[in-house]
Amino acid sequence: MAQSAERLVGRDADLETLIGLVDNARAAKGRHVLLAGDAGVGKTRILRELRGRAVADGRQTFVGHCLDFGDSAEAYLPFTEILDNITTALPEVVAQVADVHPALLRMAPVARVLGGADTADQEALDRGNLFAAIHALLERAAEKAPVLVVVEDTHWADQSTRDLLTFLFTRPFIGPVTIVASYRADDLHRRHPLRRQLAEWTRLPSVERVHLGRLSDDDVRLLVAELAGDLGIDVESVVRRAEGNAFFVEELVQAAGAEELPWDLADLLLVRLEQLDATAREVVDTASAAGRNVSDELLEAVAGLDRATLDAGLRQAIERAILVPREDGYYLFRHALLGEAVYDDLLPGERVRLHQRYVAALRGDLTTGSAAGLARHARLAGDHETALSAGIEAGDEAAATGGPDEASQHYQQAIAQLAGHAASDHDTQRLVDLVVKASDAMVAAGHADRAGKLAREQRESLPLDAPGLWRAQLMTVEIETSFAYVNDVEVGALAEAAMAALPEDAPPLVRARLLAAYARTLMIYRRHDDAERAGQEALALAEELGRTGLAAEVSATLAGTWGRPPQARIEPLRAAVARAAKAGALHPELRARIQLAFALDAADRLEEAGESYRSAFLLGVERGVPWAPYSFDARTAWLGHLYKIGRWDEALALTEAYGIPPALSPWLEANRLMIEQDRGADRGAEARRLRPSWKQEVATASESVPVEIKAAGAHGDVETILEAYDAGVETLGRTWGKWFGGNTRLSAVAVSAISAAIPGLPVGERRQVTAQVDRIVAAGMRPAEARPTWGLEGQAWTARLVAEGLRVHWLAGIDPPEQEELVDAWRKAVAAFQVFPHVHELAWSRARLAEILRAGGDAAGARELVDQARESAKQLGAEPLLEHLRTFGTTPQRSGAGPSGRLTARESEILALVAAGRSNGEIGTQLFISTKTVSVHVSNILAKLGASGRTEAAAIGRRRGLVE
Fold this sequence. Notes:
This protein is mainly alpha-helical. It has 46 helices and 8 strands.
């Protein structure tokens, strides 16, 4: 009888490629591989060979399998298997890591069996600690010997597994750790959830992709010879029919004795089953309903056969290469396609009856199943009540494990079963509790908007006489989620309604959560005394209940009260950060860190503020939650800080983000456009296309509107400048308040853009334009007038706004200021931007002052300022400013970048690729940056070399020794 080939046929080159990547990874410390290929092409077989070679080479290998559980996914399933393997091989390492990272124990197999989930602590939904624990475990294991981790069949991976892989791919390892993840390329339809993350992974410099193609005809002939020997197989028939699919070849050889072979692979697989006797077929059928694998204990309970008969059936299935035994007591199908073919061949009634037997077995005393597995079997068996209760337990299990996506999925399925069918108050209370759980999971997974909508929909569907407790619970969720994303919720009115609805005998945790949200709402409305009282009550309840995460959240609210001056908030916020870190409450810690940074910023301790932004951003990335609300806020704030102090390349790098949710992407996009525009690109049209996103994240407007305004100013389009300014002020004012501080900056940018158009305007139109400028200046001055104290940033932009307004009148010749007044205003602007460090705006302020000094006859003073501004502009690559400075007539003869060069390291790298004839798209692919970023770099290179095009730049680069 033909068996699987002992020798790997036709894959020598592919295997050597994989081995080379793994060996290189040992040196690079963190190179990973994606292995793609069609079903049956031989991915598992080559991975088995790779593991064998790795073991022989002294590596530790750990394998995890993803299984097709459909809508009953178990969070981190392959990593649970990997952790089990590591625990067996390195128990002392696991114990040591668990001491430092207790979250690791949540993934241990013993915590995943039926009834094993600890659902008392919803704070377990924070998966940042778990991600850090897995990373630390692999790092620690690598201290013993190089580690190879294999995750098979990631096309079936749950969302949490995919997110964990993203985390491991993006966070470097110190030791030699390599991850190889395989997937079926032919299974990835357009809406497959893995497609988006594959696109992210393949862009990472740490990840290589290998596609396993089909075997050549000659390789198929060799494989047939290896499998069949001298059995007289019609080799050419196999070659024609197998089409290079190794698994198909094996099945064709196996079925060669059949009278007539089907052409379809699924039907061909069933030929193998026809060789089984009735008992073995029953065993195989029973195993297929379990999925890819099944434990011996569960199979015995479901099959209903005595032990001897079951063993006889298993033995035959193993001999026929249908089932394969594992050392841990599980049986799995030799290939997933084989299990799928067996299950698909069952009659509908047979499937239902098998799933009913699995439900009966799993509801007994077995501990080898999971709640998610029971829920799946119950749904397929039509047992709705069991499916409901098991689905809720599966959600609790996923939540306790740190799998918010899977928890949310299970809870939402249960909600769908209960909604509209609640027959009693008990059912409705159960539904409300489920909505709260589902919302917590959605928020933890980064879907706060969906959580808020779910809570609102369920609240609005409650009967008119519904108890106040239910309404208060659902309104609490709406309030909490409204803090995480921009929506149309009137949070103040909602909070008051929730407090009014909350009964005196409400459960303490319900009361604590609502009070915490209420305190935060009161803080927003500056009712500081009321907020303090509500917050202290919430804190006392949280501490009494042992809810350390909630207590940390309330502490952050109380410490960051706007009722105290910024300086007085700093130390309480430092204590709140420490408290959250000690409790392992990641999101409260991120919030406290970002609030601390805001307080430091407001207290004009700008370097400390920048460091606090950076630390919060890095913490979010390190813990695998870069897009959580406060983690993302920290990214944008750190990006803004880098922009101001002139580290533009670093700031641009922060805009190239993998896996960013669509709702957040426009904000980063606006920051990217702002820097690229300041370097000379016309980004006005792209910025305007971001306007629809203002509804989701209003802060986008604060960065995209200046881009629109500057682009219109470059074209002398006053009408568009005014329209963009008014649209931005109306949008931001509606959300941030009528006199929002950012209006001063927007006004200064708008007036500056209008000034560029003044010389080209007909004299008769200038008075009307200056009247609009006066309106904008007055609006921009209101934030300063409304504040008793105004920070360094506000002072700088106020001084700039005054100076820009006077300059417009000076240029237009309408009520022009005296020369002394104008010079004084611009000297104040320069001084203010020296104190508030903003490299680009300081350079522009110096350029404007130089222009006015030169017009007044002070050529020497103007020249000194121009030289200072030019030096800053060169360092930034700010081409529009450089071009403006060239009009002064004081610019020295431009010198090229010599061999030592003024090109940055990245620009030198790109120049070499330009000289090699690469397009911007090809350069972006090679360097893992966007094509737009390449375009900006190329523009900077042309400017620095004084070249008119790419060919001339390459020639100059070769002549000066910049390019070989």
